[in-house]
Amino acid sequence: MRELVVETDGLTKRYGDRLAVDRVSMTVMRGEVYGFLGPNGAGKTTTLRMMLGLIRPTAGSASVLGRPAGRPDVTARIGALIEGPGFYPYLSGRDNLRTMARYQGLPNTEVDRVLEMVDLAGRAKDAFKGYSLGMKQRLGVAAAMLGSPDLLVLDEPTNGLDPAGMADMRALVVSLAEAGQTVILSSHILAEVQEICDRVGVINNGRLLRESTVADLRGGATLRVRATPEDAALAVLMRMAGDEGVRRIGNETLEVDLPATATPDVVRQLVTHSIDVHEVAVAERSLEDVFFEMTGNRTNSGQELVS
Ligand SMILES: Nc1ncnc2c1ncn2[C@@H]1O[C@H](COP(=O)(O)OP(=O)(O)OP(=O)(O)O)[C@@H](O)[C@H]1O
């Protein structure tokens, strides 16, 4: 049994008559990168803030590392990057972290360790105000890593970064995960969650719609079959995959809910019925497709979720 690091039970937050978080029950296991995915305003930050004990739930509960969220001994074991950390602009990256380390009773060697981890050691002497946005975010992660917390909570760590900065941040999270760090990362960018997370919780309008591995969420692959005449092919494929299991997607192509292993049988059946098979391709559903099915929210530029 893998150890539970976070468990929420019916976690709810109401602001006036607005339910920001609505009975969310989620679990995060030790050593995994958990992607908390949802459009802007879905309730991600509010949920994370309750986990960190920064705000109180209206109902339900959150436990972190086996104890109620918000207890000082629990909070001390969580590192968080949530709504931009406050750094002194005229101090260097290293001096900013040294100030924080001292406050937590940690030695300067700990500062050097985390700067190394986020690949900022070479620029540690430069003033914070001269850092790029990506470097500022990495320093934020370094600050969260001070003292080797059991759990790292990163709220939209790639928000506002350029593509290179985003790639750097993803690589950083992957390297932390490889070192055994448990990470919860919120994001509205599907591609990034798909790339780096083990499991995903999908949240929309405060409700947790699904919690599963990325692979399970995406479900099995489908086949794309281009065959003529299309109507005859449709009839044959519907006998194989059911009426609901076949869709026309244009260009004489049908999408069929059958696994890749069904390809030989599909081709054989079509040919037996004197249907010309021009192309059969295995198409994996992206997380974006799945999210759209669950929420009805089409995504922006194929990457981002918009509410
Ligand atoms: N302090 C507050 N007072 C009133 N409403 C709030 C407060 N904090 C959040 N909300 C509302 O709760 C809902 C969820 O917000 P939350 O910030 O948790 O979403 P999110 O998924 O993190 O989105 P984003 O990516 O935009 O931060 C939103 O409708 C927001 O307007």
UniProtKB/TrEMBL annotation:
Gene3D superfamilies noted in UniProt: P-loop containing nucleotide triphosphate hydrolases
Among InterPro entries, the record links this protein to: AAA+_ATPase, ABC_transporter-like_ATP-bd, ABC_transporter-like_CS, P-loop_NTPase
Report domain ABC transporter positions: 6-230
Read off the Pfam families from this record.
ABC_tran
- Chloroplast as UniProt keyword: no
Which molecular function terms from Gene Ontology are attached? ATP binding; ATP hydrolysis activity
- Keyword annotations for this protein? ATP-binding, Nucleotide-binding, Transport
The UniProt entry's sequence similarity note says: Belongs to the ABC transporter superfamily.
Would you tell me the protein name for this molecule? ATP-binding cassette domain-containing protein
Q: Which organism is it from?
A: Nocardioides turkmenicus
